[in-house]
Specification:
Number of domains: 1
Distance between the termini: 36 Å
Strand content: under 5%
Number of helices: 16
Largest sheet: 3 strands, mixed
Strand order of the largest sheet: 1-3-2
Helix content: 55-70%
Structural class: mainly alpha
Length: 375
């Protein structure tokens, strides 16, 4: 992150790799005004906005992944898949093949999804908490998205705090945020979404095991994940909470804070991994000052988070040394408790940003050692 290269103004969003992959309505969303930008670094009068930069980089990575799983060059995507319908045919055909395979190995895949997430260095602490009985998981592959829609409905109360009904949330988003905590809560949601999207490709850590179920299963997972991620950019803004542009949801997660249970459901393995990661990060935000509506997204901000969050999370994670990655959950929690100007400084990178984050890492390490010395 210390060497970020921000594009100079021409078009604010750079979709030159695959112009038709970025719908004009989604472009307007990113290039428009967002209250959360008050928290982001100002990159100078001749550069992209920070949100435009991270959305552009996330898009480029998605297009590269798609070309890889299609087995073609980026420049050939448009020639071989000239419209949305051509992508849809590939997506639905592959999803049906995955469903047939997964129905024969449901329990094994549920266990494997949780295992590969908890085996990541950044979730070492969560794994220890699970092993010690401090937190538990309810993980399910489901064969129809109606179960997920029902779960999402149960997770959204009629009144979402402060007397604000869900139907009023979008108006709040347009007006801006009333406090610094609202601003930080939006940042937390973007980080959570970005982390979860980036983890949809974790299935490659289990390529050998997946090959025992079907020799091409990993490739099919990669193709559906890349196409699903491209949908965040390609489909127009539409009413409904599904970021791809309407339709039934593919996954959901919820947190039982009283009993410390993280529940995750997904229609296939990569989506299930995605929801497990979202659930863990929402759980990590439970006792921070920003926890009031972490995970509770409006119609517009869900899309923005999924389009921009992956690159922001990647840049933040890159600032944490590999040998300190197990501290990432604690570092993240401490970051959320900082003043907004400190978050802005860290996102800016450079020596000052890195030095401030290093202090948070030191504090996190002290807390980690103290916790386990008390056990």
């Amino acid at each position: 992150m210390n060497n970020m290269n921000f594009r100079q103004l021409g078009e604010a969003v750079d979709a030159s790799d695959f112009e038709s992959g970025w719908h004009p309505s989604k472009r307007r969303r990113i290039e428009g005004s967002h209250p959360v930008e008050d928290l982001f670094p100002q990159l100078g009068p001749e550069a992209q906005k920070y949100l435009e930069h991270i959305a552009t980089q996330s898009f480029k990575q998605t297009v590269k992944k798609l070309a890889r799983y299609l087995g073609i060059e980026v420049n050939d995507i448009l020639h071989q898949y000239p419209n949305v319908n051509s992508f849809a045919a590939v997506l639905f055909d592959t999803l049906h093949k995955i469903e047939d395979i997964e129905q024969q190995h449901t329990e094994e895949l549920e266990e494997l999804a949780l295992q590969i997430v908890l085996d990541l260095p950044e979730f070492q602490m969560i794994k220890q908490m699970r092993d010690q009985g401090h937190v538990s998981f309810d993980i399910k592959l489901v064969d129809n998205s109606g179960d997920i829609a029902e779960m999402l409905e149960q997770d959204v109360p009629e009144d979402q705090g402060d007397g604000i009904a869900p139907s009023e949330q979008l108006a709040l988003y347009v007006k801006g945020y009333d406090s610094e905590e609202d601003l930080k809560r939006e940042f937390a949601n973007m980080m959570m979404a970005g982390n979860a999207v980036s983890k949809m490709y974790l299935f490659h850590l289990a390529d050998d095991k997946l090959a025992r179920f079907h020799p091409n299963l990993s490739k099919m997972y990669g193709l559906t994940s890349a196409l699903g991620n491209l949908g965040y950019y390609m489909f127009p803004d539409m009413p409904g909470g599904v970021a791809q542009g309407g339709g039934m949801p593919a996954g959901a997660e919820s947190i039982d804070r009283e009993n410390h249970i993280i529940t995750a459901k997904g229609i296939n393995f990569p989506v299930l991994v995605h929801e497990i990661v979202k659930g863990i990060w929402e759980y990590l935000s439970a006792d921070t000052a920003t926890s009031g509506n972490v995970g509770g997204e409006t119609l517009g901000d869900e899309i923005t988070h999924l389009m921009s969050g992956p690159e922001m999370y990647r840049q933040f994670q890159a600032m944490v040394p590999e040998d300190k990655m197990y501290l990432l959950p604690l570092v993240y929690k401490k970051l959320l408790q900082e003043r907004s100007e400190i978050i802005t400084l860290i996102l800016s990178g450079g020596n000052r940003g890195q030095a401030r984050l290093d202090k948070l890492i030191e504090l996190a390490e002290e807390e980690y050692k103290q916790f386990y010395s008390d056990e």
